[in-house]
Amino acid sequence: MPRRSAADAALTRASIIDRSVAVASVEGLEGLTIGRLATDLDMSKAGVIGHFGTKEELQLAALSAARAVYKREVWDRAAAVAPEPGRKRLLAIADAWMSYLARDVFPGGCFITAASCEFDDRPGRVREAIRAQHEEWLRVLAREAQAAIAAGDLPRGTRADDVAFTMNAIAMGTNQARHLAQDPDAPSRGWRAMRTLLHAPRARRRFA
Amino acid sequence: MPRRSAADAALTRASIIDRSVAVASVEGLEGLTIGRLATDLDMSKAGVIGHFGTKEELQLAALSAARAVYKREVWDRAAAVAPEPGRKRLLAIADAWMSYLARDVFPGGCFITAASCEFDDRPGRVREAIRAQHEEWLRVLAREAQAAIAAGDLPRGTRADDVAFTMNAIAMGTNQARHLAQDPDAPSRGWRAMRTLLHAPRARRRFA
DNA sequence: CCTACCGATCGGTAGG
DNA sequence: CCTACCGATCGGTAGG
Questions:
Q1: Distance between CA atoms of A149 and A170, rounded to whole angstroms?
Q2: Which among B28, B53, B34 has a CA at the least distance from the CA of B120?
Q3: In degrees rounded to 5, what are phi and psi of residue B185?
Q4: What is the rounded CA–CA span in Å between residue A205 and residue B20?
Q5: How far is the CA of A48 from the C1' of D1 (A)?
Q6: Is the CB atom of residue B195 positioned under 7 angstroms from any atom of strand D?
Q7: Class of domain A6-197
Q8: Buried-exposed string A39-56: b where 16+ CB fall within 10 A, e elsewhere
Q9: Residues of chain B contacting residue A28, judged by C-beta atoms under 8 Å apart
């Protein structure tokens, strides 16, 4: 029984994180258990937790992996379509965001929203990591909104941080409509709300 | 050791539910444990669970109690201020809603939002109860919006269910801003977003 | 409403 | 990466 190579170990670690993200998007980061992961991955519990040391480290690793997925699926997609800051890019972000929800990138819906609801009143490292991620994302949105305001593409008196706040709120509502109410039209509804917020014409848009 | 009277039993039951709502608003409905309640209430676990039979029944009882609080703090307050359906009452609802969040009626923030995030992908009776409550509330909001539209108080082409959707989204975002980001101005921000949505002038408003 | 108890599972460790 | 194990806690029950 030789120890496996460092490369093999890294692959195992990645597979544990992948599975953790999927499970936690449905069961929550606390509902994620080492025993459940061990069963799913045909490993021993010690083999699972050995890669992380504690459950909290595993939760932080899952959160970080989810963040990378989120960035790729929302920000990178939008930035590729709209390379300049401003209202066009906000609309591209809204589009990519609704598409991300429509495609069920995480089986239990938006991982970040779920983690945020679960930890918003539980002090600790996990909560601080979620908070830092969330605030960074709101700053990105506000920066875009500021460019749109400077270009005269949003009504005078509009506050950039209010636009960021409401876009995030609409995404949370869309996630809820899709998962709790199981409304297949949730992303279209969210899209309409985003366009109204951004004062864009109400072009119809189908998400799948 | 005589058995206590039915009235005493009802009081005990009510105290268990009260405590359950408070604990679950922070720890979640699954994080709520019978042992924790027993410790908090200086009772035995059997004494706690005996009133409900199963944890699921306890969760349903807590949800129902939270719904009553929510109705009293948001709907009843708004209806007292604005007896007629329409935009004025939507503004009164927005005001009561932000006040409910500002006053931290539940220690862990909006119980319904937390429960919704936690159960939105977990089939079962709890999820169906949350869903039914949520959809009923959205219908109430849409009915108000429909009256506002009929009275010409919202722009032509506005959809009543979209107004309900976005109001709910703004409340979710406000709850997140208050608890995750610990932003004391979250209710004021939510209030601004509600007024923008409802095309009302941006009167300043302090919440506490 | 209590004591006493059940099997299952939790996160985590020792040692290899 | 495994087996074997730890104390703690889980939801729930029997019996009074």
A1: 20
A2: B28
A3: -90, 10
A4: 43
A5: 9
A6: no
A7: mainly alpha
A8: eebebeeeebbebbeebe
A9: 28, 30, 118
The residue with tokens 């779920």 is: A114
**Contact check, Cβ <8 Å, B180/A30:** no
Q: Which residue of chain B has the CA closest to A123?
A: B180
Question: In the numeric block, which tokens belong to residue B143?
Answer: 């009915």
Q: A181 to chain B: which residues are within 8 Å by CB? A: 131, 134-135
Name the pTM for this structure. 0.95
CA distance A143 to chain B (A): 18
Task: Quote the CA–CA distance of A178 and A101 in Å, as a whole number.
Answer: 8
Give the H/E segment covering residue B143.
Answer: helix B125-150
**DSSP3 helix / strand / coil % (chain B, rounded to 5):** 70, 0, 30
Chain B hits for A26, Cβ within 8 Å? 121-122
Question: Where do we find the tokens 């039951």?
Answer: B13
Domain assignments of chain B as residue spans, ordered by start: 6-197
Test B162 with A192 for CB contact under 8 angstroms: yes
In this predicted structure, what is the pLDDT of residue B3? 53
Asked if A150 has any chain B CB less than 8 Å from its own CB, the reply is no
Among A54, A48, A47, which Cα is nearest to A20's? Answer: A48
- Distances from the Cα of A89 to the Cαs of A79, A86, A189, in angstroms? 7, 5, 19
Q: Does A42 touch chain B (CB under 8 A)?
A: no
* Secondary structure (3-state) at A64: helix
**Cα gap B26→A154, rounded to integer Å:** 38
Distance from CA(A33) to C1'(C14), angstroms, rounded: 21
Token code pair at residue A44: 């021993």
Is A135 an 8 Å CB contact of chain B? yes
| Residue at token pair 């998007």 | A25
pLDDT tens per residue across all 208 residues of chain A? 335 677 788 899 999 999 999 999 999 999 999 999 999 999 999 999 999 999 999 999 999 999 999 999 999 999 999 999 999 999 999 999 999 999 999 999 999 999 999 999 999 999 999 999 999 999 999 999 999 999 999 999 999 999 999 999 999 999 999 999 999 999 999 999 999 999 987 777 888 7
